[in-house]
């Protein structure tokens, strides 16, 4: 549903993301006179209209199908008008809670009208007997009086113990009308006795009934349920309920990734989302017998300011959720990339230098999610205090002994309470602001967690972190001690960040707190990524990653500059969100911060270099031909020393592994190890053709050892079947798998064959193709993938010594089930074979598959670079642009049309962006000469992005069966 532009113009612009957060400007409980409910639906008028329709003047009998059809028609109109009005009001006042309350009111009035109509005009029972009494209750979220546009409507039909058939008939009539309106209704029909009995053993039912609200029907029945529920269910079982709700929350967090900083968060179920606030409400209502924020403030659980933060967080999240439902036309809870720009526009965000409107909106979202986490910690601390006070007799005494605070050697400001550090009194930070850093150092040294009371006081003392504290040498030394802690630096930096200290102590870090990068490559916000990078370094040092990262784990203990390395890891992306290149801007920030931290001039320059060049190693490894000697020499000149190579290697590995699940894989690891090994030889003076040959021979011996037990002839053929670049870049376990694959094909006499394997964790499927080599082979493979709707995320092409090609393409996973995914791989193989034996041409095959074009969520200007200086023998074409299905097929087809021979290809996908690098020659094996020809290459490849619906290659490009050695 689209709101007219005239409505959208009056939307209230939210506060800046860096300002105090909130949704609408109102505070406190919702006031009915502010909701303008009469503009949503006039309940009296609706009931009167239905009465007229069912009365004598309506001319229709109770059982007449036309009567029901007319009722449904009226209700559809009321429902559509009410939802349209609610959406327009959401644009006008920005109130998420108000919108949810309006939609809840709309459903209330529809249910009341249908209930009254059914009793009076359908079943003719306006005066109910004791056995015919019933009450219709809203439960769950609907019971709170809030409802998102696409949410389920949870109803409880409450009946007396002895009941007649009328209750079930009315419930059935109402439900069918609601279903015909297109509403999703969850319902149950129970007596008071059944409700009480089920609530005693099922916490889900208990939670739903906790938020019961009478919509219509018998008040006495509703009151009876309330009295019995409180007396028989709630009394004496509060602790069990709290434990169950918190365990349920933890399980939900674990399922969604256990971080509130996922760049495509679930607004309802994710960490820091609405469900976390609902959990607080449930516990508050059960434990404190209150159901408003104001009551929690009155009981001292929250301060007045924290109560306001609660209200603003809830209002903001409801606004986002309601906009999402209106936009999607259904219950969409995941704030995905494709809808983030439109939600940002609806909420009135604008671009600032370095940050787009969607990035500013998402930063605001993550700050709100952080607020929700803070409130949860405060609430749990209050519950813990209540639990301690309520413990009876001897049990309380024993618990008090266990919880008795003990001192920490060397300080009077802090104590240990149940293995958590806490403050000795409320004035420790005011008396000495350095304590705001010292508490984290002490927690790291003694391996303590943090007491919620301490974190609460830290948040309330952030104003003490000023320029003088930032310049304090002791405070900076304490910070470095936390950053370089040998046990778990991530934990203490994370608590420091969540408490707000990290962003205040390092204002440059504060600017990237909760900042997302609007791309599909990074899974986390910038600050979360930096903390995870530090965690990866700690894992390396502690030997946790030794088996997966053998080279990095070996060299990490030889690094001389441990402190600069940790500082560089924390700062490498600190300049994200600025108009200039973040690596260059980060270098400037490093030069400013490092002397303040206490680093000397040499260490400062080292950190600045690592920040500036932190992407160079990964880009070279993934986008350049590592068998080209000029690639290695150019990289070695940039690195200059072996010590800097080691540091850059560790930064690169930690950076990639902290991007998101599945980003790091064995192929990237092998490329990085190869680049490191080749560069190490140059920097130590050991680079020579003989040395490379020795490493190649070692790789052959290693492969031969893994093929022990093979027939001698087959093993020799497998070991000698590959050139140097394959042996030095492909992991040995993959070499073994490929050798078995080639041996099976040779035994079966197949000139063309494929194999596939899935990787559920990485979300990809790998397809290996063995075929006679041909200049257009990569284009054929890419076309076969595109025709099956498969998007290529990576590709490696190798020519074997016998003239065959062994190409490995990685496609993004489409199906959840492995069997379905392998069937798709089979379709891809059949497509490739049909193209290779001449039965099909790429344009015709793609024309059958080509789906309607979907506008991408991202905008990215394509770039084509043709460079003769990166290789001594080959021309390098680097293509950067927005990814889409079939792109590689189009690019390789265009390169073939230009009469260029692809010698190697390096395909890299960074979310929605691809960087494809092709090493090419002309048909004579020479570099591309002449500016005119270079410009033609640029224009032709840019045309692939400008006209993605066009043909991949001309029909004349259809290969002949003879060229591929395939006999039909």
Automatic annotation (TrEMBL):
Chain segments carrying region Disordered: 1-27
Gene Ontology biological-process annotations: regulation of nitrogen utilization
Matching SMART domains: HDc
Pfam families with a match to the protein in the record: ACT, GlnD_UR_UTase, HD, NTP_transf_2
Superkingdom of origin: Bacteria
Catalyzed reaction equations: [protein-PII]-L-tyrosine + UTP = [protein-PII]-uridylyl-L-tyrosine + diphosphate; [protein-PII]-uridylyl-L-tyrosine + H2O = [protein-PII]-L-tyrosine + UMP + H(+)
UniProt keyword annotations, A-Z: Hydrolase, Magnesium, Multifunctional enzyme, Nucleotidyltransferase, Repeat, Transferase
EC number(s) from the headed UniProt entry: 2.7.7.59, 3.1.4.-
Sequence ranges assigned to domain ACT in this UniProt record: 766-852, 876-955
Ranges of residues in domain HD: 526-648
Function: Modifies, by uridylylation and deuridylylation, the PII regulatory proteins (GlnB and homologs), in response to the nitrogen status of the cell that GlnD senses through the glutamine level. Under low glutamine levels, catalyzes the conversion of the PII proteins and UTP to PII-UMP and PPi, while under higher glutamine levels, GlnD hydrolyzes PII-UMP to PII and UMP (deuridylylation). Thus, controls uridylylation state and activity of the PII proteins, and plays an important role in the regulation of nitrogen metabolism.
Protein name: Bifunctional uridylyltransferase/uridylyl-removing enzyme
Species of the source: Aureimonas pseudogalii
Name of the coding gene: glnD
